[in-house]
Amino acid sequence: MEYLSTQPYKGVRDFYPEDMAIQRYIFDGWAKTAERFGYARVDASIFEPSALYRAKGQENEEMVNEQTYTFTDRGDREVTLRPELTPTLARMIAGKRHELYFPVRWYSIPNLYRYERPQRGRLREFWQLNADVFGDNTIACDVDMLVYVANIFKDFGATLDTFVIRVNDRGWMNSVFDSLNLTDEQKRAMFLLLDKKNKITAAAFDAEAKEIIGADFTLPSPSADSRIMQTVNILHDLGITNVVIDPAIVRGFNYYTGLVFEIYDTNEENSRALGGGGRYDNLTEMFGGDPITGIGFGMGDVSMVNFLITHQLLPENLTPAPTLTILPLEEIAAGEAIKIANKFRAEYIATVVDATDRKLGKKLEHACDDGIKFALVLGSDEVTSQSYTLKNLFTREQTTGTAEELIKKILS
Questions:
Q1: Coil vs helix vs strand at 331
Q2: Tens digits of per-residue pLDDT, 92-127?
Q3: Quick one: 24 exposed, middle or buried, by C-beta within 10 A (0-12, 13-18, 19+)?
Q4: Rounded to whole angstroms, how far apart are CA atoms 382 and 385?
Q5: Do 132 and 88 lie in a common domain?
Q6: Which of 119, 240, 261, 262 has the fewest CB atoms lying closer than 10 Å?
Q7: Residue 381: its pLDDT value, please?
Q8: Quick one: residue 251, left, alpha or beta (phi over 0 = left, psi -120 to 50 = alpha)?
Q9: How far apart are CA 71 and CA 50, in angstroms?
């Protein structure tokens, strides 16, 4: 007989209790900050028509062909497992545009899929915090989005010196390229080159830029009255001083039209971006009607875990433990032990029953190792008298009383 492998599919994860506890801690933190900033939670199916991702240009076509899980279903429809959520949100906004009151603030924590080479900070299946604002194209909206991003990290206990927010403006970059009379193809090539600027030498960048535009290229600085400079200055005045302008931040998708940004760990151990996003004021156009302005970002759970571990911000003992264990002796019927347990559960005291045939000492030892605080040994005398002895496994203190009295003791 040939046995199956116990390993998961390449690039995905199994979540054991301790892993789920970490994920829940991160998701709960993400949700808490999002709702504090006025975002409402949404979600959608993991399936989308592939046309949704192909619709916005060549780079999207390449993404569908090379980096997604795309297949033809039994109805001969081409379907893609969502690699990102922004196009889905644009579809949802466009579909309800006449019923929504703008601006709309939505967040979600979807699982996403990309067929890429697994590496540190990037897997094939992952979860991501997405947050978007539709119907507000003001500088105040841009600023508040970045204040929200900074507060996500601060709410996990991070200080501003542990991460940096690198910003740029695709609109400004386009105006620079327009002044050089670049064609659309040259612009696209320059954006791709800028996207890898921080990964190559300055000489290599200059050589490739000259090959693309036919001349030496020097990137000017944004003027003091430009939108990107105003945004950064306001953020600094608000105390978010770890925001810097970086011309290499352009993001991978051409649907970005204005502010773009990425968040990086200042510890070089985590070199990949922790998250990023930007303004996309024309994305709903593909669904017809007038465009609806939008700005949003995504932040992955894999890189967030790495960040929290690197900066020792992940609390210990996140796995929840039951509060009480009921240890019935051999003569006790299963129903009796569960009946007692249910009295505690009815008062929202997490309770387990250990009716295995292991020795009592081993059961108590195992309960301590699991972080269970209280134990109740159940014998025939306890069942008859309905008086029980509760043992605090941390302090060794013992209390005797009825179930109702012991419930009050545990909850006190």
A1: coil
A2: 999 999 999 999 999 999 999 999 888 887 888 899
A3: middle
A4: 5
A5: yes
A6: 119
A7: 92
A8: left
A9: 9
Would you place residue 167 in the very low, low, confident or very high pLDDT band (cuts 50, 70, 90)?
A: very high
Q: Which of 86, 112, 96, 129 is nearest to 279 (CA)?
A: 86
Residues 281 and 383 occupy one common structural domain = no
pTM of the model: 0.89
For residue 44, the enclosing domain spans: 17-159+267-310
**49 and 132 together in one domain:** yes
| Residues 24 and 151 both lie in one domain | yes
> For the chain, what's the residue count?
412
How much of the chain, in percent, has pLDDT values that exceed 90?
A: 69
How far apart are the C-alpha atoms of 265 and 389, rounded to whole Å?
52
Can you read off the two tokens belonging to residue 266? 């200042």
Residue 65 has pLDDT above 80, yes or no: no
Condensed to tens digits (0 to 9), the pLDDT of residues 19-30 reads 999 999 999 999
DSSP assignment, residue 244? E
DSSP state of 372: -
Condensed to tens digits (0 to 9), the pLDDT of residues 227-251 reads 999 999 999 999 999 999 998 898 8
Q: Which of 139, 115, 129, 145 is nearest to 295 (CA)?
A: 145
Judged against a pLDDT cut of 70, whether residue 12 lies above it is answered with yes
351 within some domain: yes
Helices of type H across 101-258: 139-155, 170-179, 184-195, 202-213, 227-237
Average pLDDT, the chain: 92
Residue 62's H or E segment, with its range, is helix 58-67
Contacts of 306 (CB under 8 A, 6+ apart): 120, 121, 265, 269, 270
Q: Provide the token pair at 322.
A: 């039951």
3-state secondary structure of 316: coil
Q: Is 345 helix (H, G, I), strand (E, B) or coil?
A: helix
The per-residue DSSP string of 84-133 comes to -SHHHHHHHHHHTTTTPPSSEEEEE--EEE-----BTTB-SEEEEEEEEE
How many structural domains is the chain composed of?
A: 2
% helix, strand, coil for the chain, step of 5: 40, 20, 40
